[in-house]
Specification:
- The chain is mostly helical and 429 residues long.
- Helix content is 68%, strand content 4%.
- The chain is built from 20 helices and six strands.
- A two-stranded antiparallel ribbon has the order 1-4. Strands 2-3 form a two-stranded antiparallel ribbon. Strands 5-6 form a two-stranded antiparallel ribbon.
- Helix 4 crosses helix 11 and helix 9 packs antiparallel against helix 17.
- The radius of gyration is 21 Å and the shape is globular.
C-alpha cells in the first residue's frame, strides 16, 4: 500500500496521537480482555501486560514495526489444562517457557536464516493444528453461551445470540474502523441487552475502588516456581502454531506498510520481541502475547503507520488497567455474553486454519496430505493422551502438533510446494 497519511517514523499531532491511539486500543480491547476471562486471569493485568509487551516489542524491533501485542487465543486450552493440574502459577511458568522458546528460535534464525522453519512447519501441519485450536474450544463456547451452573437457560442463551449476531453484523455489513472491532461492539450490545433482561450482577462495581492495582502474580511470592516436563509438554508445542502465525502477520503487515520485515529489522527481532513480551507478561501474571490482526486492519484503513500511535495505544492500555471501576464492569459481563463472542472467535480460528490450506493449494487428493491432516484433527479434537509415566503425559493440541511435525518429517512425498505461497511471493518480491 502507498500514500501513507503518517509513515513509520512520522510524529502525529497531539490530537491525532490521542484519537488514533484510542482507535488501536479499542480494536484490540475485546479480544485482549476475553482471553483472561476465559482462563481465569485478571483482565486488568492482561491490559497492562499488552501495553508493556507492545512497548518492548517496538524497542526490540528498533521502532520499525507498527504492531500491537494482545492476548493469544492459541494458549487458552493449554492454560486451562496447566491450571487444572498445577494451579495458575503453573500456567504462568509454562508461558515463560514459551517466551524463552521464542528467544531460542529467534537466535537460530539470526544465525541460520528462516527458511528452515517452513520445512518443519508447512501449511499441511500448521493449518490443521489451527483448526484444532478453534474446534477444540467449541464445546466451551457453546456451554458458556447456553448453560448456567450446568443447567440450560434460554434467557442467558438469548444474550449470547444477541452478542453473536451483533458481532456478525459489524463484521459483515460495516466498513472502516467499526469493522475492526466487532468483538468489542458485540460485548457492549450484549451487555446492554443483559442489563435489560436482568442477568447482570452489579455488586462488583459498587465494591470496586476508582483506582486499583491489577492482580499481579509474581513467582516466588504468589506461587512456587516449579518447572516440570509435563508442564513444558503442555505449553511449549503450541509455538508450532504461534510462530507460524507471527510470520504470517509480519508478511501481511509488510505489505500494508510497504516494507520487508522478514529482512529488516529481521524476523529474528520481531520474533524475539514477541517472545520477550510473552515472558514479561507471564512474569507478572498475564497471558501469552501475539501480534494482533485487528490492529493491522486499523493500519490498512487509516493509512497511519506511525509507531508513535502504536506506542500511544500501549500507554492508554497501561493507564486503563489501573481504573478499578472500569475493570469491575468487565468482571460483571455475563458468561453467556462471553460465550456469544467466543462462538464467533473460535469458529474464525478454525476457519483460518482451513483458509491456510486453501490459500496454499494443499491437494487432498494426495494421500500424504490427507493422512497428516486427518491424524492431527482427530487426535487434537478427540483429546488423545500419550502417557509416559504417572506424572508425565502429552495430550490434546500439544500431542496433535508434535505428531503432525513428525508425520511431515518421516512420510515420503514431501515437496517444495509445501512452502507457503506467501513465503514464495515474499522471496520473489
Amino acid at each position: 500500500m502507498s500514500n501513507a497519511v503518517l509513515d513509520i517514523k512520522d510524529k502525529p499531532t497531539p490530537v491525532q496521537l490521542v484519537t488514533l491511539s484510542f482507535q488501536h486500543m479499542f480494536a484490540m480491547f475485546g479480544s485482549t480482555i476475553l482471553v483472561p476471562q476465559l482462563v481465569g486471569l485478571s483482565p486488568a493485568i492482561a491490559l497492562l501486560t499488552s501495553g508493556i509487551a507492545t512497548l518492548f516489542f517496538l524497542l526490540i524491533t528498533k521502532f520499525q514495526v507498527p504492531a500491537y501485542l494482545g492476548s493469544s487465543f492459541a494458549f487458552i486450552a493449554p492454560i486451562i489444562l496447566a491450571t487444572k493440574t498445577g494451579g495458575v502459577g503453573s500456567a504462568m511458568i509454562g508461558a515463560m517457557a514459551v517466551g524463552i522458546t521464542y528467544g531460542i528460535v529467534s537466535l537460530v534464525i539470526w544465525k541460520s536464516g528462516y527458511k528452515w522453519i517452513m520445512k518443519i512447519l508447512p501449511p499441511i501441519v500448521v493449518g490443521p493444528v489451527i483448526m484444532v485450536i478453534g474446534l477444540g474450544l467449541s464445546g466451551t463456547a457453546v456451554n458458556m453461551a447456553m448453560n448456567v451452573d450446568g443447567e440450560y437457560s434460554f434467557l442467558h442463551f438469548s444474550a449470547a445470540l444477541v452478542t453473536l449476531f451483533t458481532a456478525i453484523i459489524f463484521t459483515i455489513f460495516f466498513r472502516g474502523i467499526l469493522s475492526t472491532m466487532p468483538i468489542l461492539i458485540g460485548l457492549i450490545v450484549g451487555y446492554v441487552y443483559s442489563m435489560i433482561i436482568g442477568i447482570v450482577d452489579y455488586s462488583p462495581i459498587a465494591k470496586a475502588d476508582f483506582f486499583a492495582l491489577p492482580d499481579f502474580l509474581i513467582p516466588g511470592v504468589h506461587y512456587d516456581f516449579e518447572i516440570t516436563t509435563k508442564l513444558l509438554l503442555t505449553m511449549v508445542p503450541i509455538v508450532i502454531v504461534t510462530i507460524s502465525e507471527h510470520i504470517g502477520h509480519q508478511l501481511v503487515l509488510g505489505k500494508v506498510v510497504n516494507r520487508d520485515y522478514i529482512k529488516e529489522p529481521g524476523l529474528h527481532r520481531s520474533l524475539l520481541g514477541d517472545g520477550l513480551g510473552t515472558f514479561i507478561s507471564a512474569l507478572i501474571g498475564g497471558p501469552p502475547k501475539t501480534t494482533y490482526g485487528e490492529n493491522i486492519g486499523v493500519l490498512a484503513i487509516t493509512r497511519v503507520y506511525s509507531v508513535y500511535v502504536i506506542a500511544g495505544a500501549a500507554v492508554v492500555a497501561v493507564l486503563l488497567s489501573f481504573f478499578g471501576k472500569a475493570m469491575a464492569v468487565i468482571a460483571t459481563i455475563p458468561t453467556s455474553v462471553l460465550g456469544g463472542v467466543s462462538i464467533l472467535l473460535f469458529g474464525i480460528i478454525a476457519a483460518s486454519g482451513l483458509r491456510m490450506l486453501v490459500d496454499n493449494h494443499i491437494d487432498f487428493g494426495n494421500s500424504r496430505n490427507l493422512v497428516i491432516a486427518s491424524v492431527i484433527l482427530v487426535i487434537g479434537i478427540g483429546g488423545a493422551k500419550f502417557v509416559i509415566s504417572e506424572s508425565l503425559s502429552i495430550e490434546g493440541m500439544a500431542l496433535a502438533a508434535i505428531i503432525g511435525v513428525l508425520l511431515n518429517a518421516i512420510l515420503p512425498g514431501k515437496k517444495e510446494a509445501d512452502i507457503p505461497v506467501s513465503y514464495k511471493q515474499n522471496e520473489n518480491s
